[in-house]
User: What shape does this take?
Amino acid sequence: MSSLQELFTRRVVLMTGKGGVGRSSLTAALATQAQRKGVRVLICDIGDDPNDYSPLARHFGRDRFTAAPTLVAPGIHGVVLLARSGQELFLKSVLRSGTLARAALSSDALRRLLSAGPSFKEMGVFFQLLTLLRAKLPSGEPEHSLVLIDMPATGHTLSLTGLPELLLRLVPRGPIAAALREGQSYLNDPKLGAAWVVAIPETLPVSECLELLEGLQKTGMPTGGVLMNRVPVDPFSAAERSALQSPLERINPLGAEGFRRPVLARREIARLRAGTKLPIIELPELAHGAALISGLADVLEKEGRTS
Amino acid sequence: MTNELVRIGELIRNRRVIVCCGAGGVGKTTTAAALSLAAARAGRRVLVLTIDPSKRLAETLGVSRNPPTPVAVPPDRQIAAGIHAPASLDAWMLDPKLVADESVRRLTKTPEDAERVLSNRIYQQVSSMVAGMHEYTAMEALHRLVNEGRYDLVVLDTPPSRHALDFLEAPRRLSGLVDSSALQAFLPKRDSLMARAASKVIEKILGAVFGEEFAHELVAFMMTFSGIFSALNVDVNAMRTFLSGPDVAFLLVTSPAPATLAEAHFFQDKTKELGLPFRGFVLNRSRARNTSKRWPDETSLEDLPAEAKAALPRLQVMAQGELDAAKRDLSLLTELEQRAGTSATAIAVPELPEGADDMLTLLTIADALAAS
Ligand SMILES: Nc1ncnc2c1ncn2[C@@H]1O[C@H](COP(=O)(O)OP(=O)(O)O)[C@@H](O)[C@H]1O
Ligand SMILES: Nc1ncnc2c1ncn2[C@@H]1O[C@H](COP(=O)(O)OP(=O)(O)O)[C@@H](O)[C@H]1O
Ligand SMILES: [Mg+2]
Ligand SMILES: [Mg+2]
Assistant: This one.
């Protein structure tokens, strides 16, 4: 099975990478592709504020997702993971007494603690994710067979994947520890969880991609591979390149930059290959616009058969 | 509409604080570094304060990452960059954990108190992961350094966040937690029957959530902490007031993307709402300069080999693509200029094909900013 086909057999996949490289677009494209394969897919956004607009939701014609999964396209559910909703779910689950839970949720002091306390935000997101992974259909099958998460910045990804180890050192017993261990059983099992790093073929993004892969490994998060996005299509043959090279350097006209770009991209992809054994899947630079997501999904479909 | 009133070249010469905001990856750190180089070249004593250090930037400036206090850019590099005494350039790439330790030492009454906090197991684990700590430490450091008067200008590079101004809210949340009234609720009460009953409920909740053992430890930790950090709240408000003043300029760094205008709009509204002095947009990685380039005329390509000639139509497609991008970015800049109005400005920084991490390119950007 190709590494991309494997992606669709996981329970939870984190789409991570530096800002602006195409995480949201590829999350949407993978969801489209998963749906075409008949996978029940849930796409998640991680939000700070329930009123934030979401670039991921934009791809599905809405400003944002809600805290409960909703159908956003045929066969695709969307949800926003919010620290607040996860914390509420958690409090309700551990404070079995209804009175206590209500007291907790209405306590101003507790609310402040949860909004600023150590890693409590990540914990909330983590717990909401866990709840979604646990959800079962009446048939006993998971309600969302694939949970795809559009992760925010790199730092957030590592705080989430590193959360269980960090908190377990502090709180080795009790309900938090139990939830963390259960979450680890999904995230850190290479058959169930994977992080995919989205990158673009430029110098710094590739360096950061290598750093992120190292960071993920340190937190025990299995990695599926790299989605190398926006690879410029090279329309020139080797002979044309060598013939054009020096006149273009001399005149440096319009188009010379576009001429050089594929070479720079190849150099960076080679550097990434030298730095990791993981599969690297290339996605071309496509035209902006309404067809971007379906175009990316088509490429993913083709790639899935080969790489 | 061009702007006569606000110019970046002026801001770097007469403000005391410039805050660079923006989403991740747009070039905030690069812009902050270029602005600080430009100001130091113009004769000022400058500090660039960054929370999100890029390894290469540290190497370029020749400073270590995460020192406990600001460090001077090595003298030879300052001279090479055209910075001459009494002007100077310091850089500080903040490590929240180190700065938190510093704050504890400063805010505690005795060294023994400081030790008690610093050696606390919970403190050690959480001091770098408390939400808002990063942002708080940056604000705190900024406030202190500006007041000390060691620098004429501090350029603040804010951490990446979806919403450019998140870093202003985070310290408030943190101070909301540690201000005495919130913490008191967690502490065991001895006074009234009512208070004791209420704190019993909280104790029960904490016990159920964290487990009895850890809940006790947590309460003990908060008791140690409550006295020490009561000063926090005051700082946050003082800081806000300072940031609203005439010595400060907020800039939004963006790069050309479909969402750029929406983000610009949001940022401008938000700064207005918060009463912060918004002074301009920096459109980084702009491809607009390409309009000055031309597709070569027939004569200059006459002596090309035949196979290269066959490739020319494809090269022309690329040229057209660059021209289109240039037009798009130019009109984006015009829209940003219009949006900026008379109290702010908009400036484009060109996309540099090899990145912007070495001193030479940073200086190129610095000069462009200074001349604007
Ligand atoms: N393969 C591609 N070809 C062309 N444009 C792309 C491609 N992938 C992403 N983009 C564009 O890049 C920008 C950033 O993409 P986005 O998915 O929002 O990134 P992220 O979520 O990582 O911040 C968007 O404007 C998107 O349309
Ligand atoms: N004008 C530019 N042209 C080319 N590359 C740039 C430009 N500005 C920034 N970069 C590069 O983009 C990357 C991200 O820039 P950085 O300043 O670290 O962004 P941020 O701080 O907003 O995350 C760096 O590798 C930097 O060299
Ligand atoms: Mg995104
Ligand atoms: Mg930065």
About this structure: The mean pLDDT of chain B is 81. Residues 19 and 156 of chain B are 5 Å apart (CA to CA).
